[in-house]
Design brief:
Blueprint: H1 3-12, H2 28-42, E1 51-54, H3 57-73, H4 77-82, E2 87-90, H5 91-101
Parallel strand pairs: 1-2
Helix pairs in contact: 1-2, 2-3
């Protein structure tokens, strides 16, 4: 099966949790962006319920930009207003946020 077919299968998957792992330039960000949009626009879940984690700041930023532009294309201004609160982070950023939010429980100064 070629890369495009694999990418399309990943985008259309109905699984709630997926892991996209592949080499550079294979379409990981495309899969995550399209899947994120499909889930968000479906209305089945709120923006606050979607979490996307990447390895690098560059990838997280690119994902945010692509989703924002696609929302503009689709004229989903209702979702664009909320998009600043999207949980798209690096692994380190996500973990840092948890530790900041729950520092007392984690017994961290």
């Amino acid at each position: 099966m070629n890369q495009k077919n694999n990418r399309d299968k990943s985008i259309q998957s109905s699984k709630k949790k997926i892991l996209v792992s592949a080499g550079a330039g294979t379409g990981k960000t495309t899969v995550l962006v399209e899947r994120y949009l499909r889930i968000l626009i479906s209305g089945d879940v709120n923006l606050e319920e979607i979490l996307a984690i990447t390895f690098t700041e560059k990838a997280a930023q690119e994902m945010k930009e692509r989703i924002f532009l696609r929302l503009l294309e689709k004229e989903r201004f209702d979702l664009i207003e909320k998009f600043n609160n999207a949980r798209i982070h690096t692994i380190h950023g996500f973990c840092s946020g948890i530790l900041k939010d729950y520092s007392f429980e984690a017994e961290i100064d």
